[in-house]
Amino acid sequence: MTPTSPSTVPLTIATVGVHVLDIHVVGIEAIPQNSDGALVESIGFSAAGTAGGTALVLARLGAAVRTHGAIGADSIGRSLTALLDAEGVDTRGLVPKAGVQTSSSVIPVRPNGDRPAWHCIGANAQFVLDDLDPGALDGLDHLHLGGPEFLGGPVAAELLGRARDRGITTSADLLSGGDPGLLEWIGDALPHIDYLMPNDEQTRGLTGSDDLADGARALVDRGVGCVALTRGADGALVVTGDDTVAVPAYSVDVVDTTGCGDAFSAGFITGRLRGLGLADSAELGCAVAAHVTQGIGTAANSYDLDAIETFRRAHAAD
Question: Which CDD domains does this entry report, sorted A to Z (predicted)?
């Protein structure tokens, strides 16, 4: 497929929900025994989370991004905020919560790119709609809710419904692993989501279907406008009430898969808002994810929308 270039009209997007500071430890062969130590290749920080990581990538792709969520009044929160500020994200919507730490993960990155994690939920569990500034939805083209399960279905539905009543398109991505109980927990929000972007395991868990297309259609039947799900090395699958589109992943040397889902979400959203079709938007999402996998963390490598489009055109010509 020949890539279609997206429109360059400026976009204003808000991300709401989960913000995490990731600490990447690269070169982990095994956890040392007892109190022994081991040398690693590198240790670094990156802004992450289904709202925070997506905000970072959206900003790199040219959107004006405002992000909203809860952090702790701590050094982790200050570091996370500084990383997002450096990417041009408006972080005034990050609300410090007293007596709780900022959410953080320690991610040991194995030589094959696998990355198990130790995670502290922290302040993400304390974010409520009252934390949003009254003007949070003003002037938006799009609202992305990262982690609707942290708000619960009725509250997430209220937020997303407010946005759609203003003509703002919406999307959501999950942080938790999927299961039927989670689907019921967020069920009220589903009819207010234009684009739901789970991964393959979440889709299977939510719906109980081993067939990803059938699972995605079950979510569409629950009211979601479009399901754009990631399939790891197999790329992405996009399902609506009328279409099913499969897009392969790009072949690159994988260093770290952390943040790939957030990168795909940002690329897919950018494509749709800039007028691309489902397949081209999914290709754009996969291209952004491919860039992120070649480095450490969501902020890996230097790229913008022009670089991603150049990458897509080069691979289309191969």
Answer: KdgK
Report whether pLDDT(7) > 70: no
- Does domain 12-30+40-315 sit in CATH 3.40.1190.20? yes
Q: Tell me the C-alpha distance between 117 and 109, whole Å.
A: 9
Determine contact, residues 182/198, Cβ cutoff 8 Å.
Answer: no
The domain limits of the chain are 12-30+40-315
- How many CB atoms sit inside 10 A of residue 240's CB? 17
Point out which residues pair with 171 in neighbouring strands.
Answer: 144, 195
* Digit-coded pLDDT (tens) for 149-165: 999 999 999 999 999 99
Coil, helix or strand at residue 240: strand
Q: Residues near 231 by Cβ (< 8 Å), separated by ≥ 6?
A: 199, 200, 212, 237, 249
Q: For residues 246 and 228, what is the distance between their CA atoms, to the nearest angstrom?
A: 10
Give me the mean pLDDT over the 190-214 stretch: 96
Closest among 196, 205, 122, 201 to 153, alpha carbons compared: 196
Sign for the pseudo-dihedral over CA of 300, 306, 307, 311: positive
